[in-house]
TrEMBL record:
Pfam families: PG_binding_1, SLT_2. This is Lytic murein transglycosylase. The keyword Transferase does not apply. SUPFAM superfamilies: Lysozyme-like, PGBD-like. It comes from Roseibium polysiphoniae. Residues 356-411 form the Peptidoglycan binding-like domain. Residues 49-336 form the Transglycosylase SLT domain.
């Protein structure tokens, strides 16, 4: 769940997997569309903007929202061309794990994260007590999303949502978000004139969409409102409620750095392959700190057998629900372990990876061999990793799913 504003680093990561949201709220969206299909079907997106907004208003009224709230929300809404530009040119996330994690998990964020956990200790204790989500997990997301609220975005939220709902690329996602914004206005939790956030409509210190806020929003400071933009207490509790809903298991680990013997069976690694912790231990897997849990876990190698190595427990999957980028997910999960007291990872000395052009060349070759790598986009996604691992095994190479110039040359 990320439109990340990592302004303190040398890069920007503006790509969020909105399909995760679409899956989470598909039942809500389906009910909305079913209830209003006869009246609003013809104007679900596109066409005259004012007529489109009139259709949104009627849909909101049919759901029990007030005409006053709808008029306040939509009355001055405008198309924002910068939003469309951002939507059409979302950055492709191609940094490797070591590069991304080193930039994202700075000394500043470590120090500030520890200070925030202390400052809001009571709120974090409540979050863990009520929702089972520990402070380091929430704090890592808080840091990576907005630098603890420092960089929340400056796009008018209603304009952004109205623009994307009117646009016909993903109206099934953004039209309900615009309806939810009306709901927030009615609750007194959103001022349509002044509320700003990310270009895709996310709001506040942990960057959540209006439907998320309506469903999971918590009043952490007791003022009777959910204000994720200004209230850190509200943001912390809301994030905890959302993470719990994604399936977080209380008291369980999420990621653990490990060491492996040099003759390890590399073909057993990868997110899709699980063993109980005791089975991994029998294979020579050892924890760098603490003890290996006997929960089911996958052994992941973000940069191959010569880079950092982690056991990913079931709670790691919650990170994938928040954001489906493997590198962001692993970095966020690792960041949380650092905030919880784990040592800095052993970076090792990974083999050189592929350039963007080389990665596209590899994907093209893998496609010609019958592997489904999806779009030839230069991104080392799960399908490409799986294909690389299979080819490495066939060629008698260590099957660690890390593509190198040596592999490309062999192909």
């Amino acid at each position: 769940m990320l439109v990340a504003f990592i302004a303190a680093t040398a890069f920007s990561f503006d790509q969020r997997d909105f399909m995760t949201r679409a899956r989470l709220f598909a039942p809500i969206t389906a009910l909305v569309l079913a209830a209003t299909a006869p009246a609003a079907h013809a104007a679900q997106c596109g066409g005259d903007f004012r007529q489109f907004l009139a259709g949104v208003k009627q849909e909101a009224l049919s759901m029990g929202l007030s005409a006053r709230a709808a008029d306040r929300t939509l009355g001055n809404a405008q198309i924002d061309r910068k939003v469309l530009s951002r939507d059409r040119a979302q950055g492709v996330f191609k940094l490797d794990f070591l590069t991304f994690s080193k930039r994202a998990i700075s000394g500043y964020r470590m120090k500030n994260g520890a200070a925030r956990m202390k400052q809001f200790g009571g709120v974090f204790s409540r979050a863990e007590s009520e929702y089972g989500v520990p402070a380091p997990v929430i704090t890592a997301f808080w840091a990576l999303e907005t630098d603890f609220g420092a960089v929340q975005g400056d796009f008018n939220t209603v304009n952004a949502l109205a623009t994307l709902a009117h646009d016909c690329r993903r109206p099934e996602l953004f039209r309900p978000q615009l309806i939810a914004a009306i709901h927030m206005v009615q609750n007194g939790d959103l001022d349509p004139r002044t509320m700003t956030g990310a270009w895709a409509g996310e709001i506040g210190q942990v960057q959540m969409l209006p439907e998320d806020i309506i469903k999971f929003g918590k009043d952490g400071d007791g003022d009777g409102h959910v204000n994720l933009k200004a209230s850190s207490s509200d943001a912390i509790l809301t994030a905890a409620a959302f993470i719990q809903n994604l399936g977080w298991q209380r008291g369980q680990p999420w990621l653990q750095e490990v060491t492996l013997p040099s003759n390890f069976a590399w073909e057993t690694t990868g997110l899709g392959k699980r063993k109980n912790g005791s089975d991994w231990a029998r294979m020579g897997v050892k924890a760098r700190s603490g003890k290996i849990s006997n929960l089911p876990a996958s052994l992941i190698l973000p940069q191959g057998r010569k880079g950092p190595k982690f056991l990913a427990y079931p709670n790691y999957n919650i990170y994938l629900e928040w954001n489906q980028s493997f590198i962001y997910t692993t970095s966020a999960a690792y960041f949380a372990t650092r905030l919880a007291g784990a040592p800095r990872y052993d970076a090792g000395s990974p083999d050189k990876g592929l350039s963007d052009a080389q990665m596209k060349q590899l994907q093209t070759k893998l496609k010609s061999m019958g592997y489904d790598v999806g779009k030839v986009d230069g991104i080392l996604g799960s399908n490409t990793r799986d294909a690389v691992q299979n080819v490495q095994k066939q060629l008698g190479m260590p099957a660690d799913a890390w593509p190198t110039p040596a592999l490309l040359s062999k192909l």
